[in-house]
Amino acid sequence: MSHPTFTRFVDATLRDLGAPPWGSVLDTEELAAAAAALAGSGALALEVLNPPSARAALELRAESPWDRLRAVVRVARGTPVGVVVAARTLWGQVPVGAGVARQLVLCACESGAGRIRVLDPLNSAEALEPLARAAADAGAAFVPTLTLGPVPDAGDPRWLEEARALAALPGSAAICIADGGGYLAPQELAQLTRSVVGATGLPVELALQAPVGLAPLSAVAAVEAGAAAVHASAGLVALAASRPAVSTLRAALAAGPQPLQVDPDSMDAAARVVGGLLPPERLRHAVATLSAPALALPPELVSGLVARLVRLGALDRLRETGEEIAAIARDLGCVTLADPVGEAVVAQAARHAMEGWRWQEIEPQLAQVALGRMGPLRGPVAPEALWAAQEAGAPAPTPVEIEDLRRSGPRGMSEEDLVLLAQFPEATERLAARRRSLSADAEEPPAAPGLDRSLLETLVDVVETAGEAEVSVEVGGARVTVRRASPVAVTAGAQAAPDVEAGEGIVRVESPMVGTFYRAPSPDADPFVQVGDRVEAGQTLCLIEAMKLFNELSSSVGGVVREICVENEEPVEYGQLLFLIDSAA
Predict the structure, then answer these.
(1) Most exposed: 151, 176, 186, 409, by fewest CB within 10 Å?
(2) Region 494-582: CATH code
(3) CB environment 114-138: b (16+ within 10 A), e (fewer)
(4) Phi-psi group of 386: left, alpha or beta (phi > 0 → left; psi -120 to 50 → alpha; rest → beta)
């Protein structure tokens, strides 16, 4: 198979921006602004949603992933827009039936997606087949993913066998090799890429995340071995996600036979836009990880592991726990760390490291893996892991079926919301309640005319192109104002945007996400603040645990804490009042 003339890139910026922890900060409009900036850069596709970013939108912000997808499609200017799903659990963490999976693909395509990429922690072609057929029926490009893991070794023939089976799925337009933790050295990845190109005859994409700058080196080696495209992000987002940056790839491939196809001016402009959306604390965290122990793990799992060990006062066991993760993967038949198994493997490894013995108990998700309920395993299960799974006595999960939801779900719910309900029952109910609340707030007298959509789009164009901060017009006696969006200031480790009550000097600090409120860094530590304490701008007020990540919330103003409005370890909602700070004291 001949090399392509150019190397293409799949833009991962949007799903990197939407994933935790900053997925709790950015709203749909800001994500669309980033997409508009990226659309002219020459990407093969813009991937906007994957399981972490879809969960962050729905569970942390009570925003519909479908709305995010449509907002990106509207500004993509013809660039194909893609979504990523897990074969058995889609965007969630519970198994769903084939009908739900098919409906998700159809809803995604109706919303404008032109590309469906699917992964499975066991690389099972059988599990991917319903989604492949749905994508073919909808006319979307289907890209199966060969997910690498800490085991087996790079030269193991199972990788190539799995690649052949995935490539044979109906409608496969390419095959993606995903190394999310830097498991393979650059030359090992190049050899695997060369073998997959030869064995499948399909274009090969590389989705890489790796510590200490290894990802760009691996990407260049894979391109030289025949890869047709690399998943990359813009500017500082690439640093924060441990992914190749588009600008770095362009420079690295410029002198070779397959230079990167990109509009450099558009990409530079887009990098400035998305860089402004990244919270400074997240960047400081990314820089700090460069001097931390390098773990062969996906970055999001490293963040979760560090947060868990910090909470337990056991950060000195980080490297030991990282090694235990690979051992657990081998014990479970060489499972990969793809969603939704990776978080459970990390939790199990932390349990082993803290308790000092192995497999006395087992995470529920891993019990299902060990018992073969998530599909055929790639190797034998260790006897002690199998014993723990059998002792747990967990019943086999019953996949949620779309027909059951159509019969018993809330009346009037759309097909796309039924798909969300199958994966996230509580979060979808919150979303529906939020919509009802917004609808009630937005009710107008019957005589008031509706706002013409073309007028609204014109106002937006004026704000964006003329550099105006805002534009207002009178419509039927009502004033309509369009303001330029600015980055939200609340994030993991960032400052809380103040909401000052007029005339009182009281600043309301509200939760930027759905999660659990913690007043102290660990159970035996003193609270960050007490009522009556004086705080400075930037001082940490609390932790909010969301999706197994502990996110610091700090004050944007100096003042005196007048009230702490929730109890320790209490669940909190997005926008819920947490603190009152007297900035005038």
Answers:
(1) 409
(2) 2.40.50.100
(3) bbbbbbbbbbbbebbbbbbbbbbeb
(4) alpha
pLDDT at 273 over 80: yes
Residue 275 is predicted with a pLDDT of 87
Joined together, the tokens standing for residue 365 give 């998700």
Q: Are 55 and 309 a contacting pair, CB within 8 Å?
A: no
Three-state secondary structure readout of 54-105:
HHHHHHHHCCCHHHHHHHHHHHCCCCCEEEEEECCCECCCCCECHHHHHHHH
Residue bearing tokens 């004026």: 462
Answer yes or no: are the C-beta atoms of 89 and 340 closer than 8 Å.
yes
Averaged pLDDT score across all residues of the chain: 85
The model's confidence at residue 486, banded by pLDDT at 50, 70 and 90, is very low
pTM greater than 0.85 (yes/no): no
The Cα 154–Cα 485 span in angstroms is 46
State the DSSP H helix or E strand holding residue 408, giving kind and residue range, or none if neither: helix 402-408
Ramachandran region, residue 568 (left: φ > 0; alpha: ψ -120 to 50; beta: rest): beta
Kindly report the three-state secondary structure assignment for every residue of 351-381.
HHHHHCCCCCCCCHHHHHHHCCCCCCCCCCE
The alpha carbon dihedral of 197, 200, 206, 212 has a sign of: negative
What is the pLDDT confidence band of residue 547, given thresholds at 50, 70 and 90?
A: low
What span, in angstroms and rounded, lies between the C-alpha atoms of 89 and 32? 26
- Tens digit of pLDDT for each residue in 32-75? 999 999 999 999 999 999 999 999 899 888 899 999 999 999 99
Q: Which one-letter DSSP state was computed for residue 546?
A: E
Structure tokens belonging to residue 278: 């990244």
- 8-287 homologous superfamily: Aldolase class I (3.20.20.70)
| CATH code that applies to domain 292-392 | 1.10.472
Degrees to nearest 5, angle at CA 46 with 336 and 265: 125
Domain boundaries, the chain: 8-287, 292-392, 453-483, 494-582
Which of 132-141, 345-354, 450-459, 530-539 shows the lowest per-residue confidence on average (mean pLDDT)? Answer: 450-459
**Between 477 and 95, the higher pLDDT residue:** 95
Q: Which two tokens stand for residue 41?
A: 């850069």
Residue pLDDT, tens place only, 81-128:
999 999 999 999 889 999 999 999 999 999 999 999 999 999 999 999
